[in-house]
Write a structure and sequence with these properties.
alpha+beta, 6 helices, single chain, Lipocalin
Length: 239
Amino acid sequence: MKKNILLILLGVINAALITVILVSVFTGWRTYLAAPVKQPAALSSRHEDEDGDRDTDSAQQQKPDVPPAESASSQTEAATDMPTEAPTEAPTEATNETVLPYMNSLSAPKAEEFTWLFDVANGNYHANLSYLGKDDMLGKWKAEIVLNDIWQLAYVTIDRDATITVQPYSIYRGNGWEDQRGERPMVFRGQFDISRVFGSGDSGSIDLYTLYQSDGVQYGYGSFETVSGDVGTIGLIRP
């Protein structure tokens, strides 16, 4: 009887042990199957490199071809080379004609242009005259100076500061006209008055006390005095 009971207990224990072993084996197998399979480090690194190369190649294939950007210094140099302002035309040089009237347009003075001079000296002025203002006196004139039976033709220039310049052209002393174009000019520093300009200098003094216009021609009349005290008559005309 006791022997039978002992056999039954041994059988139960064996069955329990077998069950535990089977459960353990079954659980371990499931755990093994569920765990991720790890690749060797070298193989994994190689795969990562290959994937990275593929990504790089793909990015390079997708990137469009564009020219390389210029450096900032190159752009600065290019900008510096460009003109900052539009070129302007060189200013036209002003001629003497625009500075003062008749500076370059008068012909050579001739004695026959002054046949009226002695009439005016006797008080017989031109008809329909109108006196000139300061601005109308300015510029270049043809002139004749009569002093001690000597006739001298010249150019006279009246400047804005009332400077009177007499440039000799020719002179008649009784033996024909002599060229004086190389002579030194006579300069008189003066001042303006009503239809008048007068001044003095190293050559004496000059007084153009009547300047007027008649029938489109401008005239001037006055006196010229040398440093020695000799007094002569001067007439102006233009054009």
